[in-house]
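S1.2 Input.
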Amino acid sequence: MEKATDPQSVNNNGKTVSSLAYTKAGKPGAWNETIDNRQQTKTGGDARGSKEIVRKQNVVLASTVETFNAKNADTQLLEIIERVGQIVISKSGSPVTGNADEETKTSYDSTRSEMDDLSMALNRMKITETGSINKKEIKIACWNVNGIRSKIYSNELKNYLEKYDPDIFCINETKLPPSKENEESQEEKYARIYSNKFPQYNKIFLNNNNKEYKKFDKSDKKYHYHGTGIFTKIMPVKIEKGKIGVETYDDEGRLIVAEFENFALVVVYAPLATDKFEQSRIELWDPKFYQFIKKLLESKQNVIVVGDFNVLNETIDLNQDNNYVKRQSDLDKLSTFKPKVRENFKKLLDLGLTDTFRKFKPKEIQFTTKTGRLDYILVSTSFMPAIKTSEIIKLEEGKADHCPIEVILDPNWKPDSNWN
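S1.3 Output.
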């Protein structure tokens, strides 16, 4: 499990904050290790060692930025930049401003420039206490992007995020590649890339399809399928890959669980019950996911489950004007409308979850795909009063096969004793 805090972090009454999870330099490094390197260099390290330390300073800064005290963030940032400047030492142990060789000075100037860039990025971001949300309302959105790289290339994702500005953005079907053995984690690599592209988000967490790479035929692009992600401006208390206990599904990156101060958020991409996989969906995924959510509901009062469930719950959710649907001789054989799949979804709701869109709009006919409404935001029934709106966003541009879905909620809502 990846935690948002660090035992060595600067803290304020036990609370830590984070404004930058990844930078272009790589994932955060260890501050204590760098302090040791600095001391060693001061006592006689050579210029090559100094240059190597220089190259690592963005990593160091990212690690330290991640644990800023909100009240003193600006002061601490200046102190850290000054410390990094002191680390760069010439052969004789003098500061860079002294008799260091030109190559070392150039390396230092470059690093200082990169640190300034990070400083400005930090100032653009809202520093938020880990897990807590100091806003009366936030927006949580989810979108099956059917390949995140294509949505970035076409600017569809950028345009959506700029226009609708969700505080927490959940993604289905990222279609990012699996990690290969002895290589950098693809999840960390793309989290770093997307942090640069979308600096308004303080934390990006990905769960790729990581089935063993060698098992895939290189011509079979399906090894890129599936995958989930979260882009969040609010640092979670903790965030982890969800596992239902079925290796096939757990390796496909279908679940993420993020815990915030007042609620837990689950991002899910459920498998499709095609004829080939119908038995697996009904007999493995559905009951295991049911138990996963049941356990979470028992341990957390407020739970939000978002994603593509690949089920059309009611007839009103089925687009009967769609040509593909019209061609079906028996609608019960439609993979997303099969009776057992719908029955299992209703059992999930019976655990104490409410379909937010249908709660607000019980008779409205609106779909998230051409065939119907497959994407849902479910909320603990007891937490439903926190939900202000629930919408399906129709996008005009591009060829997205799913529409984003959104809720606006009071993230700090507490149950009223008079509410039933």
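S1.4 Remarks. The longest helix spans residues 102-124.
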